[in-house]
Amino acid sequence: MSISICPQIATRPGAATLPKTFELRKRSNPNSEFEWRTRRNRSDFGFRISGFGFSRGTRSGFLLLLLLGLSATRALSAPAPWPGADLFTNGAVQRLEITLTDRDIESLRQEPRGFVHANITDGNMTCHDIALRLKGSVGSFRPLNDKPGFTLDFARFKTGQRFHGLRRIHLNNSVEDPSFCNQKLGSELFLQAGVPAPRVGYALVTLNGRRLGIYVLVEGFTEDFLSCHFNKPSGNLFEPDEGHDVNQRLKRTSIYAPKGERTALDKLSAAAQEPDLERRWERLMSALDIERFLPFMAMEVMLCHRDGYCLARNNFRIYEENGNHKTMFFPHGMDQLFGSADLPWQPHMAGLVAKAVLETPEGKRHYHDCFSVLFTNVFQTTALKNLVDQQLSQLRPFVPKAEFSKVQIEADSVKERINQRWQNLARQLGQPDLKPMEFHDGAALLGDWAKIDQPGSGEMERRAGLDGKQALYIRTASETFASWRAKALLGRGRYRFEGRASIAGIKPLSSGSHQGAGIRVAGSARQSENLVGDSAWRRLDAEFEVNEAEAEVEFICELRATAGEVWFDSSSLRVVKLP
Asked: What is the share, in percent, of the chain residues with pLDDT greater than 90?
């Protein structure tokens, strides 16, 4: 099947002229079902689409490049098959047997994050003297006598050693994703969006003869991973360590690079903090691989990857391709996706670079175009649910019947969350653009409040308070971060967001700067007190400033608590212009 078009769009200054013929065809590489090829003046550029294809009548994934006004991506020159291809294709579940000595077991009990010596076999090949350590964050870490997660580095103790062509793999215990689906879904969707992401498979693992069960097998960020996506897989690769953003200390990985330095990070950090927005966009274009970063942002938000870079400054890698001098971001840790169907498609970004891009008019416009095209052409609910079913069919023969029933229930929940997310995004994208807020006597009432993160053990609704006043109501009986949110378009100036709230029985969270009930502007800390316990109507306010000619501002009435209820007086929630 081939599709030909004659795009009539303007490219950015200095960009190569866009190719005029596009073709979709199968590629011989076993890691990718389809490959977009663009042909112009005998040049051949590649844009890899992994997973499933698009229907004939839709705008296809390559339109992302057109709408963004980008030149075609470079050709993939990876060998066929790619390193580790047999671990991630044909739906195979690997049988992996790990053996440790008593001494190494004791070492892991004393220092779980330290590497020890181990052997591993899959029945066909055995690797001796590999480096193994336990992995997992606060929620997913499990000790050795439970179902621990593993990082396996095959070349750390034996230079040049590979397992199925790979230097490093991770075995995730998936305790935070009992469906075993999310990591695979996330990687497939990022790859479809043109963002390099680790390949994902499955393994049945035993440790010293003890059956540990099914694991999610994830490709490590190494030279082998980079060779699948870049012509010259050498450069500086960074991951979060002491800091979690480009202006902080990031850990440089062991990838070979001519220079182990953070010049590119410093350049990107300075560009992101440039106060002049026009100048900032120019500097970002010079320091950031914007062609990949826009879909990276869009997919993190679309998939509700709330523990990723954009929304939490967590779970990411940053790479500077040698000779390119531009940084790019890779996704990581995608075991909890689609968890918040009502997450705004234009949320406040926590990541410095994401926030900096969206504060520029050009970045915001390109992000909007990118998100719309990816939602139309990549977020295909039927294909995603089919992929979940396909994964379940792969796992069924390896999981005991009683255990598989639980996996099936969790997978069905994932499919329902996919539906809910698609429906919510469709509603959000169908809403009309914001119009500038109209003030009367220096004030404007806020309306069109939306529920965000509705409590699982509670409720959110518009209802009358004890004195009959109409209010935005939140009640919870478990830990919640629920909020009512509204947006407005404001011009340059100083403002105050104000309103009244009453509370009953609010018990604060155990940690965090925002506790109980309160109001604030997105991206800013609360200025008023945190309301906990019981209280009659109290006035709350938050002053803020808009430094652009026009900016979208999000207003938040929130409850962060383990129990209690709050009423926000609807008639009092307004924005006041300040001198």
From this structure: 64
CA 425 to centroid of chain Cα atoms? 16
Residue appearing with tokens 């078009």:
5
Q: How many CB atoms lie within 10 A of CB 109?
A: 12
Tokens of 488: 């407005």
User: Which runs of consecutive H residues, i.e. helices, occur in 166-289?
Assistant: 182-192, 223-227, 263-272, 277-287
- Closest by CA position to 293, among listed 366, 346, 221: 366
pLDDT at 71: 34
How many angstroms separate the CA atoms of 10 and 362, rounded?
A: 14
Amino acid (one-letter) located at 160: G
Spatial CA neighbour of 472 closest among 444, 496, 445, 502:
502
For residue 95, give the nearest of 126, 119, 122, 76 by alpha carbon: 122
Q: How does pLDDT run across 70-82, given as a tens digit for each residue?
A: 333 333 333 446 7
Token look-up 């608590």 returns 561
Distance CA 479, CA 270 (A): 38
Separation CA 206–CA 96 (nearest Å): 6
Please give the average per-residue pLDDT across 251-260, as a whole number: 68
481 and 456 Cβ atoms separated by less than 8 Å: no
Asked if residue 73 lies in contact with residue 291, where contact means CB atoms within 8 angstroms, the answer is: yes
Domains assigned to the chain: 1-76 (no CATH), 85-223 (no CATH), 443-578 (2.60.120.260)
Please count the CA atoms within 13 angstroms of the CA of 230 that sit on its side-chain side.
19
Task: Reply yes or no on whether the pLDDT at 1 is more than 60.
Answer: no
Write down the H helix ranges in 243-397: 263-272, 277-287, 290-302, 309-312, 352-358, 361-377, 381-395
Residues in the chain: 579
- Contact between residue 550 and residue 490 where contact means Cβ atoms under 8 Å apart: yes
> CB 182: neighbour CB atoms within 10 A?
25
Burial of 281 (0-12, 13-18, 19+ CB in 10 A): buried
With cut-offs at 50, 70 and 90, classify the pLDDT of residue 254.
low
Residue 315 predicted with pLDDT over 50: yes
Is 332:305 a contact under the CB 8 Å cutoff?
no
Amino acid at 227: S
Instruction: Round to whole Å and give the CA distance between 564 and 558.
Output: 12
Location of structure tokens 């520029």? 360
Calpha distance 353→358 (Å, rounded) = 9
Q: How many Cβ atoms sit within 10 Å of the Cβ of residue 31? A: 19
pLDDT digits (tens, 9 = 90+) for 202-243: 999 999 999 999 999 999 999 889 888 887 777 888 988 766
CA 302 – CA 296 distance, rounded (Å)? 10
User: Does residue 369 sit in helix, strand or coil?
Assistant: helix
| Bridge partners of residue 99, in order along the sequence | 119
Give which of 215, 216, 179 is closest to 200, Cα–Cα.
Answer: 216
The secondary element (H helix, E strand) that includes residue 406 is helix 401-430
Q: Is the pLDDT of residue 10 over 60?
A: no
How far apart are alpha carbons 411 and 116 in whole angstroms?
A: 35
Query: How many Cα atoms occupy the beta-carbon half-sphere of 516 within 13 Å?
Result: 18
